[in-house]
């Protein structure tokens, strides 16, 4: 089982290819935000880019907050899965996520990273990677990753 | 007709005076594709060809293309407006996040008309249209404005585009630009002043909507194929490696780099400001327009010690060949840090750096020749004196006195008052950084945007020595047409190797525009002619264009410029353009007029 980490965001050029790919391939949407990964600047483009992305909490507060079981903990640990048919668009998951990783679209449908890695192939700078879920991976890998 | 809806554009027309928007659903996709064609269509509908550029009723148009957001590098927006620089219909192009933001806000174009009662910002999103009073931003520079607008118009962080003007736009400079997302610009011909004349300090476009995916089953695969071509084939290498400043050494070698107001075309100091020098010494990071994996934006760092106890201010400045030329060799500045610092100052004022730099270069020579004095210029202008030139940029932006008010309208306007028109380096507007020879000088003078990007003339010069007027004009006319196709789509022109006709046909077909897929050439031609007709209807006479004397004194790798041949080229290209801009013939073979 793998989890998605934005390992090398210092290299990010802000092209949004990753989030557009996730929207297109995973969420079947043409959007900047109905996607599991969203790219932001931290106050204007001159300040560099940040990936807003599920950090794969275990246990996951978003899953715990979901009143229908639509958002549930992945069995083998790390991250969550979303069953759209069970979702009532209450937004509790998004409210519970400490890092704003869940986006609600206009209709209230949550979009969250499924740790599938479809986006990574579209990043021209290798910023993104799937890593083994059972090896602890701190989110600060973003800034102190060593090859 | 397969699907009528495919022919429609969704356009937001916002009246600043009334503070009201109107959603217009307009037909015409099959006639004009989008982008350049759509901007022309909208100017025909909303523009007042004979009223002045600053008439509040004049539209300021932002248009995107059919494939914007759906495919890589379809990342630009076309701004259409009546130019206060020459009072002609004009276009300027920029990327940043503007194109995708408009797409995801749900519009093919935004048209702004009227004049706000107070200095305002327009906020447009998929579920939001709002005019906000920002009178307190009066006089604010471009970067401060950007920072404050992020707070004033909250929402959609990371997924919005912020367009804004600086003092130069508020003060009506003929070459005030619109800054887009810090590093990109609707640079040339004064779109920023049109915005200023509307009391419009900023436009925030929030790309916060969701659109359906194209229904075509092959979409994901076609996207992937194009994405791969763009990222792994090496054809984009030159744009993201050194970027366009890679041109400096080859141009200098070919005696084609303008130095010190075009007194020379090469200089032994070129290596100091080469693309390599910028990359090694100053390059900090790269950035991309949204939807473009190439990332050609090069951002350099200027570290300025502002106190002797080692206190520093840091400026991040985007650079490219054209701004580097205008703030560098053209002004005799050969320290890359100073080039960026001058650039930064022009950028803060919201000035088009190419026009501002070249106009200043004229002012330096006019100072040398005693045509103007320090009484006019307030600082002593000398080639290479970066501090004085930087200060002059501020003075232009702030329209500090009568001299700077005139210089802010262009070198020719100042020369008409003081004298010195022979050495004003103006080819329709202040020249871009290619002194490649007769073809380029004639092309920039006559061509639609008076831009180095209108045609591939600058590269034609570098490859052809033989003189053949008919052949050159044929090349210019054909090349313009291919470029207009891309600016209708609106693809980044760097992607012209990728978006060849077969690929464009697949893209349009995949997006449901099957008919257009078979007729895009006719639509692009239609758009091109519509643009020329508008330019001529707003007063442009291609035959009346003139190339200043300085350009006949230039020596390139081909030897001294042949003034007689250059004039023949100009005249012949002007004839071709007059024909392109003639009213449409009535025979049915013509595509319908816009
Ligand atoms: S969505 Fe948020 S709360 Fe849920 S697992 Fe990911 S980071 Fe944790
Ligand atoms: S790993 Fe999958 S779900 Fe997560 S952001 Fe990438 S494409 Fe989207
Ligand atoms: S694809 Fe890579 S470079 Fe582009 S925005 Fe995403 S993380 Fe950044």
Automatic annotation (TrEMBL), chain A:
One of its GO terms (molecular function) is metal ion binding. It comes from the Bacteria. InterPro entries: 4Fe4S_Fe-S-bd, 4Fe4S_Fe_S_CS, RnfB_subfamily. PROSITE patterns: 4FE4S_FER_1, 4FE4S_FER_2. Residues 3-33, 78-107, 109-133 form the 4Fe-4S ferredoxin-type domain. Keywords: 4Fe-4S, Iron, Iron-sulfur, Metal-binding. The keyword Ion transport does not apply. It holds the Pfam family Fer4_4. This is Iron-sulfur binding protein. It comes from Solidesulfovibrio magneticus (strain ATCC 700980 / DSM 13731 / RS-1).
Automatic annotation (TrEMBL), chain B:
Residues 9-209 form the Aldehyde ferredoxin oxidoreductase N-terminal domain. Its cofactor is [4Fe-4S] cluster; tungstopterin. SMART domains: AFOR_N. One of its GO terms (molecular function) is oxidoreductase activity, acting on the aldehyde or oxo group of donors, iron-sulfur protein as acceptor. The keyword Nucleus does not apply. It comes from the Bacteria. Keywords: 4Fe-4S, Iron, Iron-sulfur, Metal-binding, Oxidoreductase. InterPro entries: Ald_Fedxn_OxRdtase_dom2, Ald_Fedxn_OxRdtase_dom3, Ald_Fedxn_OxRdtase_N, Ald_Fedxn_OxRdtase_N_sf, OxRdtase_Ald_Fedxn_C, Tungsten_al_ferr_oxy-like_C, W-dependent_AOR. Belongs to the AOR/FOR family. This is Aldehyde ferredoxin oxidoreductase family protein. It comes from Solidesulfovibrio magneticus (strain ATCC 700980 / DSM 13731 / RS-1). The lineage of its organism: Bacteria, Pseudomonadati, Thermodesulfobacteriota, Desulfovibrionia, Desulfovibrionales.
